[in-house]
Automatic annotation (TrEMBL):
<dbReference type="Pfam" id="PF04091">
    <property type="entry name" value="Sec15_C"/>
</dbReference>
<dbReference type="Pfam" id="PF20651">
    <property type="entry name" value="EXOC6_Sec15_N"/>
</dbReference>
<comment type="similarity">
    <text>Belongs to the SEC15 family.</text>
</comment>
<keyword id="KW-0813">Transport</keyword>
<dbReference type="InterPro" id="IPR048359">
    <property type="entry name" value="EXOC6_Sec15_N"/>
</dbReference>
<dbReference type="InterPro" id="IPR007225">
    <property type="entry name" value="EXOC6/Sec15"/>
</dbReference>
<comment type="function">
    <text>Component of the exocyst complex involved in the docking of exocytic vesicles with fusion sites on the plasma membrane.</text>
</comment>
<keyword id="KW-0268">Exocytosis</keyword>
<dbReference type="InterPro" id="IPR046361">
    <property type="entry name" value="EXOC6/Sec15_C"/>
</dbReference>
<protein>
    <recommendedName>
        <fullName>Exocyst complex component</fullName>
    </recommendedName>
</protein>
<dbReference type="InterPro" id="IPR042044">
    <property type="entry name" value="EXOC6PINT-1/Sec15/Tip20_C_dom2"/>
</dbReference>
<feature type="domain" description="Exocyst complex subunit EXOC6/Sec15 C-terminal">
    <location>
        <begin position="407"/>
        <end position="755"/>
    </location>
</feature>
<dbReference type="InterPro" id="IPR042045">
    <property type="entry name" value="EXOC6/Sec15_C_dom1"/>
</dbReference>
<feature type="domain" description="Exocyst complex component EXOC6/Sec15 N-terminal">
    <location>
        <begin position="45"/>
        <end position="214"/>
    </location>
</feature>
Length: 798
């Protein structure tokens, strides 16, 4: 049983080996691994299998042998034919080879041509791919050479984004790619250089740009004003009533304005025509393409701020001429006109916030400069031209959207300074008028001269009109001249007030205030200085008082004049009144005071001529010569005073008499005078009598009763006391309201009595007292003691 299993196993192994399905190594290993004698048995089985196969092969060969023999026989039969065929084939092959050599050559040529053609096609394809790159790069070089940098940058973008990726495998492309950053840097440097040249150019052209812009703004404004004036004239709104320039000036200005507009219409160039802005556009676009726009903006703004500081820095002598101010303004206008243009034609390079900040900085600097430099101006014409420049400057920049309210506020400060310069100028004018005046009433010989004076000064006097020629105006020549110059001052002040964008009411108020300053400060000061001048005599002072009276009356006409030129109705609008009334009253009071002073000085001059012999025994029997001369002088002076207001003449007369009385009293009581005789007292009494007669003669009408004589009452009572020697009455009635010698002061009586006592040895009266009645001497001593007692009582009471 085991033997059968072993045989079956070997048969299976042989079947597996013959099948070639399983690996033979594993099959053989299984044979050798089963049992020790398996190899031998297997070999036996294998030999048996081989013999079986050989038998099968032999059977098969035997079965097919006849066929094989037949085939060999057939093959042998065709051998000859095969050899013949071989010869033929060989011959044919030889002939074919010989014939095909040329074809081979041509075929090789064709192959080479096809290869070349393929290569050429490939090259053409590659070239067609590379040529656009090369063309674009060539175009880039041409654009660089032509300085078309913005286009060059766009070309670079196309190369990088479109063309280079197609040919990136080629070396030339890598070189181009490596060269592009350098080209970009070159473009940045070149464009920045162009920008610097542009900045330098606009710095140099700022003056022309500003001049053109200001001229254009001025023409527009002049044209508008001219049209307004034309409309005013057309509709009958003549704003300058009683103006010496009115209609003729309007027509001339209007005609000149239109002619000037026609002449300059083509001359005014725009900022685009004056400056080539293409460099800044190119540079902005270039930096935008390069993605570095912020750097460009910062650089541009930084440089422009530096230029702004340079433009805002004035020249040291700018205040000397109007051209200096004009250059300063035109440069600033040019700067901001350029910035405004850049603001509107570019996006983001400058912003409104940036320009506003720059303008506010500039405006503060401009105001500081103008405030400082305008203070140096002493010529009102220069200040007026400066004002006109500031107005045009402000109007120009306002037209570009810059706020200029602070400039007009500054103009109000300059207006005060302008008024100060006008006041100084008119102070000189007034002084010249006063110097040239002869301080005499204006004589007129015919109607024409009368009308000339009336046209200059609003004088109305029906009595004077009725008088026949020749006749005289009461005022002197300075009055119409002063009136004309006040109107001229109003005109000059009005020139500054125009174009300040203020209402007519405000202008009217400004004119009135400036005119008040002229009257209260300048004219009043000139009048006071004139009145105090030593060479101005009493006659001149009288004429000055008359002049101030007429000037005071003319103030209402000046108010009407201001109302007319400003077209403001006094009935509907509260207006400032002119202070001429108080001004001329002050001057008149000063003149009156100066009259009193000079009159007293003249009296002192006469009194200084007095030459009394204080020890004379008998009087001369007539008044002193100096006193009669003084009285005659006073009569002539008071005759001149008839043209003055009654109160002034009365005050002057009273003041003169009181001063004369005081001077005579001081002469008696002079400490240097030691001795006075009764004869001198009598002579002095004669002089006082003449003074009383003069006072009683009413040298100036208007005094009531003996009011003027009371100026000499102290002297009269004192002299009467000594002439009558009525000491008992004086001492008895002293202190009584009804006392005969009420005005005699004990100290005064004592002083004079002591002077008379010292002359007792030479005085016949006292000598007679000593000889005839020694009791009289004791009486004098007693009187003197009582007088001392009264004087001491007065001092203690005081």
């Amino acid at each position: 049983m085991l033997e059968e299993d072993s045989d079956q196993t070997y048969e299976n192994v042989l079947a597996e080996i013959q099948s070639f399905e399983l690996p033979i190594e594993a099959t053989l290993r299984s044979v050798y691994d089963d049992q020790p004698n398996a190899h031998k048995k297997f070999m036996e089985k294998l030999d048996t299998c081989i013999r079986n196969h050989d038998k099968e092969i032999e059977k098969m060969c035997n079965f097919h042998h006849q066929g094989f023999v037949d085939a060999i026989t057939e093959l042998l039969k065709v051998r000859t034919d095969a050899e013949k065929l071989k010869v033929q084939v060989t011959d044919t092959n030889r002939r074919f080879q010989d014939a095909g050599k040329e074809v081979v050559v041509q075929t090789e040529d064709i192959i080479r041509c096809r290869i070349q053609q393929r290569n050429i096609t490939t090259v053409v394809e590659k070239l067609q791919l590379c040529l656009p790159v090369l063309e674009m790069y060539t175009k880039l070089k041409e654009q660089m050479s032509a300085k078309r940098y913005y286009s060059a940058l766009k070309t670079m973008e196309q190369l990088e984004n479109v063309y280079f990726p197609r040919v990136s495998q080629y070396r030339f492309c890598q070189l181009m790619i490596e060269n592009l950053p350098k080209l970009r840097e070159d473009i940045k440097e070149i464009s920045m250089s162009d920008l610097k040249d542009f900045l330098e150019s606009i710095r140099k052209h700022s003056n022309k740009i500003g001049e053109a812009a200001m001229k254009q703004a001025q023409q527009q404004k002049t044209f508008s004003v001219a049209l307004q004036k034309q409309n005013n004239v057309k509709f009958g709104r003549n704003m300058h009533i009683n103006d010496r320039f009115t209609e003729e000036r309007n027509e001339i200005v209007l005609k000149h304005t239109f002619e000037e507009e026609d002449e300059n219409e083509e001359e005014v160039l725009t900022v685009q025509e004056l400056v080539d802005f293409s460099p800044v556009y190119r540079c902005l676009h270039i930096y935008s393409v390069l993605g570095d726009e912020e750097t460009f903006e910062n650089y541009y703004r930084k440089q422009r701020k530096k230029q702004a500081r340079l433009v805002l820095q004035p020249q040291s002598n700018m205040h000397e001429t109007v051209d200096g101010y004009r250059r300063y303004f035109t440069q600033i206008v040019g700067f901001f006109v350029v910035e405004d243009h850049i603001l509107h034609v570019t996006q983001g390079l400058v912003t409104r916030a940036y320009t506003d900040e720059l303008w506010n900085m500039a405006l503060s600097k401009i105001i500081a400069v103008l405030r400082a430099y305008s203070s140096y101006c002493t010529d009102p014409d220069l200040v007026l031209e400066l004002k006109n420049l500031i107005v045009i400057f402000a109007d120009t920049l306002q037209g570009y959207g810059f706020p200029v309210n602070r400039l007009f506020d500054l103009l109000f400060e300059i207006r005060d300074q302008y008024n100060e310069t006008l006041l100084k100028k008119w102070a000189t004018v007034f002084r010249d008028i006063f110097e040239e005046d002869n301080y005499s009433p204006i004589p007129i010989t015919n109607e024409e001269e009368y009308k000339i004076v009336i046209s200059k000064f609003p004088f109305q006097d029906p009595d004077l009109e009725k008088q026949s020629f020749p006749k005289k105006f009461p005022m002197s020549q300075s009055v119409p001249h002063i009136y004309i110059q006040v109107k001229e001052f109003i005109y000059a002040s009005l020139k500054f007030s125009e174009s300040l964008h203020r209402s007519s009411t405000e202008i009217d108020d400004m004119l009135r205030k400036s005119t008040n300053l002229l009257l209260t400060r300048t004219l009043n000061s000139c009048l006071l200085n004139l009145i105090r001048k030593p060479h101005i005599g009493l006659t001149e002072l009288v004429q000055i008082i008359i002049n101030t009276t007429h000037l005071e009356q003319a103030c209402k006409y000046l108010e009407d004049f201001i109302t007319n030129i400003t077209n403001i109705s006094q009935e509907t609008v509260h207006t400032t009144r002119l202070y001429g009334l108080s001004t001329f009253k002050d001057a008149r009071h000063a003149a009156e005071g100066e009259i009193y002073t000079k009159l007293n000085q003249k009296i002192d001059e006469f009194v200084q001529l007095a030459d009394y012999d204080w020890t004379m025994s008998e009087p001369d029997g007539r008044a002193s010569g100096y006193l009669m001369d003084l009285i005659n002088f006073l009569r002539s002076i008071f005759q001149v005073f008839t043209h003055l207001p009654g109160k002034v003449a009365q005050t002057a007369c009273m003041s003169a008499c009181q001063h004369l009385s005081t001077s005579l009293m001081q002469m008696l009581l002079d400490s240097e005078l030691k001795q006075i005789s009764m004869g001198a007292i009598q002579q002095f009494n004669l002089d006082v009598i003449q003074c009383e007669l003069f006072a009683n003669s009413e040298p100036v009408p208007g005094f009531q009763g003996d009011t003027l004589q009371l100026a000499f009452i102290d002297l009269r009572q004192l002299l009467d006391l000594f002439m009558v020697w009525d000491w008992s009455t004086y001492l008895a009635d002293y202190g009584q309201p009804a006392s005969k010698y009420l005005r005699v002061n004990p100290n005064t009586a004592l002083t004079l009595l002591e002077k008379m006592k010292d002359t007792s040895k030479k005085n016949n009266i006292f000598a007679q007292f000593r000889k005839n009645d020694r009791d009289k001497q004791k009486l004098i001593e007693t009187v003197m003691k009582q007088l001392r007692s009264l004087a001491n009582g007065m001092s203690q009471h005081t």
